[in-house]
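Quick one, probably user error.
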């Protein structure tokens, strides 16, 4: 049984109890971060902390812990759960208060939860075959740049994609791909240009996305940050997605149309190898 962290205490997962009045439960009034763990070390941890503070500030939330304390808790969870590869999930809510749309007083103690999950990140089973994607209309709220726990529609989209025989979904808005249900979307054009949507309120500012783009500098890959269409994906040489839990996974099909050769692309795999090398070297 896992050990989890809740409001200052390490407890067994079946003993972790949260108030029924917690605003994360009642209003999805909470933000979260997921940090990858490889070889018992954390990938892109500083980036995740920077985004955490951005999300907190956008919602007027306070962090109950310093960054150093959060890192210590992460490390303790990895040690207590003997985790060598997987994820650490962290969630901070506005705390517990009687149900009201109006925010509670600012001195209401926030709720902080952290737990580990085992997951194959370096060699996931899907890596060899690549992922199949279905497109879904993007009906989420307009502040997708804030990493909130409002994840019902992405969950519905994932289920709709599964019903279509796909592995996941990419969202479409005004004819353009925004992002995936829990990942950023990339294509590599026939001339070798890497294209991914520009940062705005329309997409989450992916930490893995940012690290991958930095990796392209060493590989002399031309990058364009702009919106792209489904037709561009279908005519691309390669495609892939990124997230902390899916560090560069090739995409080989969209809406039943084969992308490139229908196999994980060479440049995608080269970029993945280069990214993982840097990620491991800079892990903490």
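Nope, works fine. Designed sequence:
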């Amino acid at each position: 049984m896992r050990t989890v962290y809740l409001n200052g205490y390490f407890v067994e997962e079946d003993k972790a109890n949260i108030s029924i009045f917690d605003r994360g439960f009642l209003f999805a009034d909470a933000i979260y971060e997921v940090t990858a763990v490889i070889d018992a070390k954390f990938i892109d941890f500083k980036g995740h902390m920077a985004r955490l503070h951005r999300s907190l500030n956008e919602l007027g939330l306070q962090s109950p812990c310093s960054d150093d304390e959060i890192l210590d808790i992460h490390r303790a969870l990895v040690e207590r759960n003997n985790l060598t590869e997987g994820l650490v999930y962290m969630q901070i809510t506005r705390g517990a208060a009687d149900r009201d749309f109006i925010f509670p007083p600012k001195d209401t103690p926030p709720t902080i939860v952290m737990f580990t999950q085992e997951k194959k990140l370096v060699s996931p089973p899907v890596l060899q075959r690549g992922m199949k994607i279905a497109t879904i209309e993007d009906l989420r709220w307009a502040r997708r740049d804030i990493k909130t726990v409002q994840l019902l529609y992405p969950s519905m989209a994932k289920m709709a994609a599964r019903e279509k025989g796909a592995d996941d979904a990419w969202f479409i808005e005004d004819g353009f791909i925004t992002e995936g249900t829990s990942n950023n979307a990339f294509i590599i054009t026939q001339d070798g240009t890497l294209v991914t949507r520009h940062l705005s309120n329309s997409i989450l500012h992916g930490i893995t996305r940012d690290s991958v783009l930095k990796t392209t500098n060493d590989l002399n890959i031309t990058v364009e940050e702009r919106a792209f269409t489904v037709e561009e994906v279908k005519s691309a040489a390669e495609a892939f997605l990124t997230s902390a839990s899916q560090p560069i996974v090739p995409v080989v099909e969209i809406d039943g149309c084969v992308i490139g050769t229908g196999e994980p692309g060479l440049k995608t795999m080269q970029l993945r190898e280069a990214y993982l090398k840097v990620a491991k070297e800079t892990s903490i």
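DSSP finds eight helices and 15 strands in the chain.
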